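Purpose: get a first structural picture of the assembly so the mutagenesis plan has something to point at.
Setup: two entries, given in the order below. No constraints added.
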Amino acid sequence: DGGITQSPKYLFRKEGQNVTLSCEQNLNHDAMYWYRQDPGQGLRLIYYSQIVNDFQKGDIAEGYSVSREKKESFPLTVTSAQKNPTAFYLCASRTGGYSNQPQHFGDGTRLSIL
Amino acid sequence: AQSVTQLGSHVSVSEGALVLLRCNYSSSVPPYLFWYVQYPNQGLQLLLKYTSAATLVKGINGFEAEFKKSETSFHLTKPSAHMSDAAEYFCAVSDLGGGFKTIFGAGTRLFVKA
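Result (structure tokens, whole complex):
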């Protein structure tokens, strides 16, 4: 079945360490998104990409970086510059960058500080 | 600019009672509206979507929502709550004016009492 796979499900980061969250989709979707979810705050957009080799900052991009070298993959790196990284991270994809279609979500990665 | 307001961060109903989750949106152009459900430690799943066809939209698991332009609302209802409906629900909006970027509400957690 087609879908979005996020890994790992749980991740722990030490002080000063960069960590990378994986997101892979086999839905043949053009657009991919990263959201951060904190209790009571809904979903906040970190980065999004509408096509390969192109991506844009969302509302809370500081301390994060992404790449989009393949259509299927959109990894997110949480850098040491992100001082409060503890959160639930969700990856999503959608057919077409400019589209009225809904987004499809992975099952998330929960990041905590050691 | 688009925005979404979900009234009530928590809603509690008895099993078998009506479920009503409120969502109001702001959009300067015809919007596309979505309701998603999230179970603990999972991603979001699409319940239903409004894309300018019928104003009463039926979704999965017996949920439906009605688009009311005059009230800028898209409330989610279910006639009879089931224990398995306990989850967090998100309303979302996207439109051409916003480049189809999806804006999510803060979420409403539904509790179902036996």
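The mean pLDDT of chain A is 92.
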